[in-house]
Amino acid sequence: MSGTATYHLTAEHLAAGYRFNDRLAWRKPRTLFAVGMAIVLYTMIFLLIGGVSGIAAFRSFVIAAAIIGGFVFLVVMIRKWQIPRLAKRHFAQHKALQEAISLSWDADSIELRQPRSVGNHDWTGFIKWGETSELLLLYQTDIMFVLVPITALPEHGAEEITTFLTEAGVPRVGR
């Protein structure tokens, strides 16, 4: 089994890859633990300052709730506003992302060709892979990934690529 495809990436593809990577970061236990501990500590500090009854306790509770709400607001703003903005800027800065990419693969490796570069990667060279409804993300490091739009692949291309990755022992992430 082998295949080829040629495609152009867009800033929207890059933003979708960044969002996927952001979701992975939030799923890590240490991230969830740190956020949970911050919320508990803020709440305890304000309850200790304000006491456990009366108007001061209510004020402390409102302040703690405002801090938690502010944190949630920041997370939403980063996902909805900052990530697409950052992706557009990176896409505009990185000329290689704007060039056509020719992709070919077989049981041993995947090759990416652009006018400025050629990259040949053994399947075992990837540390993990992820999939969204529109993209395959092949990770070379925790934050460096190859984006492959699924719509650019032939009919069973995505299935072939993911089969080769799975057979090489590369773990899937982000389900």
Explain the layout of strands and helices:
Blueprint: E1 3-7, H1 11-27, H2 29-50, H3 54-93, E2 101-105, E3 109-114, E4 117-122, E5 128-131, E6 135-139, E7 145-149, H4 157-167, E8 172-173
Parallel strand pairs: 5-8
Antiparallel strand pairs: 1-2, 2-3, 3-4, 5-6, 6-7
Helix pairs in contact: 1-3, 2-3
Fold and architecture overview:
- The protein has 175 residues and is an alpha+beta fold.
- The protein folds into 2 domains: 3-9 and 98-173, Pleckstrin-homology domain (PH domain)/Phosphotyrosine-binding domain (PTB) (PH-domain like); 14-93.
- It has 4 helices and 8 strands, in the order E-H-H-H-E-E-E-E-E-E-H-E.
- The chain has helices spanning 11-27, 29-50, 54-93, 157-167; strands at 3-7, 101-105, 109-114, 117-122, 128-131, 135-139, 145-149, 172-173.
- A 4-stranded antiparallel sheet has the order 1-2-3-4, with helices on one face. It has a 4-stranded mixed sheet with strand order 7-6-5-8, sandwiched between helices.
- Helix 1 (11-27) runs antiparallel to helix 3 and helix 2 (29-50) runs antiparallel to helix 3 (54-93).
- The two termini are 26 Å apart.
